[in-house]
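Researcher: Please generate the 3D structure of the following complex. Treat every line as part of one assembly.
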Amino acid sequence: MIKLNINIDHVATLRQSRMGFAPDPIEAAKIVKESGVNGVVMHLREDRRHIQDEDLVRFKKNPQLKKFHLNLEMAPTKEMFDIANKIKPNVITLVPEKRKELTTEGGLNIKKNSRILKLRLKNLHPSIKVMLFIDAIKTQIDASINLGPRTIDGIELNTGQYARLEPHQYKLFKKEFDKLKIAAEYAHEKGLHVAAGHGLDTGNLRILTSISQIMEYNIGHSIIGDSIFFGLKKSIKRIQDIIER
Ligand code: PXP
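Model: Done. Output below.
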């Protein structure tokens, strides 16, 4: 079964634009659960630009979300590992973070950061699975495997570059697709769970699903964006009804 997790950061981004309470990502998480998909992804960024610490606490405490799968995306800092140990998500996905980026711009360089990653992972609660968000490069997969003594459960391949290309940029598109395919096959062969995410939408996902080693997708922006257009008429009608009455 191929799993789908929905990234609900984008709901929190809209909420933070007014610094209020709505729209509430926890309400979105309930709809995600009702939809029957595997779980949600929340990225607690160091600058707290969307998901807040309190969102994680409310997710965990909400009886309707009991046992619902939470993938906590985070930078490999001590602060984030302390939070993960307190919240105990099902999975953490380690990502690189730059303050000035609009969104995660590339995979985590496991080779370059292996010393600090080993140190942090030593102190992670054993019930939490570990995924690493990496670019589709063989040496990064090898470095992920060699991070021990704590075993890595899997990798999430960065599809950002692939997703930015249009099918008419055929050569580049094929090159990025092939990179993802080769990396997914290699990681799978090495016994890693393979996920993929970033920038995926109804236009670019179909071709990617031909890579049978990708067993999980993490998708947010396009789904939350599309939901505006699927729900806008209904939202207008609710306000119109009040005004007309
Ligand atoms: N995976 C990772 C590691 C990400 O950083 C993001 C974006 O927060 C996603 C998946 C989801 O990407 P998108 O929101 O573009 O679908």
